[in-house]
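Milestone 3.1: sequence recovery, worked example.
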């Protein structure tokens, strides 16, 4: 089982990266929090969760141990699969998620895309005690400076929003309604769209 990968960042997109380790490219699915923190190029190190199914093996990469541990805890909740777990971590920092779970904040959790009230209640029911036993939330890790790629190709952002579970028509309308300042990065536009969508 792969638990950690260190190598050259060969490719980076909103939902996955490819890390070149000794000439072998490993594809890792990632949450947006990890995407924002990674450089555009250079050497990186990611904590890895290896998810094995009968028909496939998927690698999930996280910048911090806290995110990886939360991912594993989310997968243990009935009805939560890898895609939903990544989606949750893409929309709320690990420290905030721990706080919401420990406080039983169903309202905050149910506001996350793809999480209804029943799922939020199940998350609290199955994880609250585990979070409380683990101690206080880990402080949020500051993110590295965001890249400054011009926000011309909005199709990349639209694709990222669709991958996060939003309907194409809904995501497209939000992107069209945004006032995008000159020189805004893709990350800035994506964050702006997510702020509107999670209301």
């Amino acid at each position: 089982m792969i638990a950690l990968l260190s190598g050259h960042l060969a490719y980076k997109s909103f939902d996955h990266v490819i890390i070149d380790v000794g000439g072998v490219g490993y594809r890792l699915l990632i949450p947006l929090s990890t995407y924002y923190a990674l450089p555009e190029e250079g050497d990186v190190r990611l904590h890895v969760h290896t998810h094995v199914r009968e028909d496939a093996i998927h690698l999930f990469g996280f910048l911090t141990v806290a995110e990886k541990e939360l991912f594993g805890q989310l997968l243990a909740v009935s009805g939560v699969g890898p895609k939903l777990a990544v989606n949750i971590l893409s929309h709320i920092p690990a420290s905030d998620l721990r706080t919401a779970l420990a406080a039983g904040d169903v309202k905050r959790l149910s506001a996350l895309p793809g999480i209804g009230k029943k799922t939020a209640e199940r998350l609290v029911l199955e994880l609250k005690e585990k979070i409380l036993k683990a101690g206080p939330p880990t402080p949020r890790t500051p993110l590295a400076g965001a890249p400054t790629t011009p926000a011309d190709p909005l199709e990349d952002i639209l694709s990222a929003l669709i991958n996060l579970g939003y309907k194409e028509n809904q995501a497209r309308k939000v992107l069209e309604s945004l006032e995008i300042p000159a020189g805004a990065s893709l990350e800035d536009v994506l964050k702006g769209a997510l702020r509107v969508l999670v209301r």
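Residues 117-134 form the longest helix (18 residues). The longest strand covers residues 43-52.
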